[in-house]
Design goal:
CATH class: Alpha Beta
Low-confidence stretches: none
Shape: globular
Distance between the termini: 21 Å
Helix content: 25-40%
CATH architecture: 3-Layer(aba) Sandwich
Number of domains: 1
Strand content: 5-15%
Strand order of the largest sheet: 2-1-13-12-11
Order of helices and strands: EEEHHHHHEEEHEEHEEEEEHH
CATH superfamily: DD-peptidase/beta-lactamase superfamily
Number of strands: 13
Number of helices: 9
Length: 323
């Protein structure tokens, strides 16, 4: 560990690596931060960044509906579902409760199909996120991973990015929209955090529109308006970013990418800091989890929970990141 001893922090037992930067300087480094592994639902925040480039280019509008985009799925969408706008998908409020192709949604909290108008109700829904990936590809003319390499991994000089390792995964019998799964290292994810903390700028060049960075991490869904099953503490929600609501000026404008089993990227612009936490998940498990049938079971690794990560983040903000 660099600069701060591990014993001084409540590092969760199942942590694989931890990387903390402030003003571009390494404050804490624990474990192998060069090892690329499954990022789980952090993928959604990465897609949000890419969407900003397309919105700015005018290739897609957030107010375009699924019907206008020609979006359909296995068994067909309902007329009311076709009225959902892209911005409803980016805030997980589409009102489309079609089975998603990949696990991880709060499916037990899904209302009956056709009972919620688009934009009315937040429930964590992989159908929204996966369909948004397909819409992005149609709008940009690029696959999600090709766009990621072109606009982010290449320009930011990723050290551990392997294009062929990134995979579209899902059960096509449930939904035609697969999940776009990334396998990235902590140090490469930290570069994403630094880019976003700087308002989309990297080495004096604007890679992501500053207005999109601001808008994507603004509050679009309040915690009080989320389905009770959503297990993210006091977080609000932006465009595919979680927004921690903690007390103190250090937390002003904070935003979080989070994935199952303990994948976290927390950006704290007010104190120029980025926290990356990883819990390594094997490729074989990640692939099995995202391609299994509804009746199959695959035991996962012991996770690091959102609550455990936030305890660590608070200790870092109060300690080595304090200003």
């Amino acid at each position: 560990m660099t600069a701060v001893h591990a014993a001084a922090l409540p590092v969760p037992r199942n942590t694989s690596s931890l990387l903390v930067l402030q003003d571009g300087r390494t404050v804490v480094e624990l474990g192998d931060t060069t090892r690329a592994s499954y990022v789980a639902s952090m993928r959604k925040s990465l897609l949000s960044i890419l969407f900003g480039i397309q919105v700015d280019a005018g290739t897609v509008s957030l107010d375009t509906t699924l019907g206008e985009l020609g979006v359909d799925d296995v068994g067909g969408l309902l007329p009311i579902e076709r009225t959902a706008r892209l911005r409803d998908l980016l805030t997980s409020r589409s009102g489309v409760y079609h089975p998603p192709s990949s696990p991880g949604s709060d499916e037990d909290a899904f209302p009956a199909r056709g009972t919620k108008a688009p934009g009315q109700y937040f429930v964590y829904n992989n159908w929204d996120f996966n369909a948004a990936g397909a819409i992005f590809e149609k709008a940009s003319g690029l696959g999600v991973f090709d766009a990621f390499e072109k606009h982010l991994a290449g320009p930011l000089g990723f050290d551990d990015y392997v294009p062929t390792r990134q995979q579209m995964l899902g059960d096509d019998q449930k939904s035609s929209f697969r999940a776009y799964h990334f396998f990235l290292s902590a140090r490469d994810l930290a570069k994403i955090g630094l880019l976003m903390a700087a308002g989309g700028q990297w080495q004096r060049r604007q890679h992501v529109p500053r207005e999109w960075v601001r808008e994507s991490v603004a509050t679009h869904v309040r915690r009080a308006d989320m389905a009770p099953a959503t297990g993210f503490g006091t977080c609000d929600y932006g465009y595919l970013w979680w927004l921690p609501r903690e007390s103190g000026p250090q937390w002003e404008g904070a935003f979080l990418a989070a994935g199952n089993y303990g994948q976290f990227l927390l950006v704290l612009p007010a104190i120029g800091s980025v926290i990356v936490h990883r819990r390594v998940v094997s490729d074989s498990f990640a692939i099995a989890r995202n391609t299994r049938t509804a009746t199959a079971s695959t035991a996962g690794p012991a996770p690091v929970t959102h609550s455990e990560f936030m305890d660590l983040a608070r200790a870092l903000v109060a300690g080595p990141l304090a200003r």
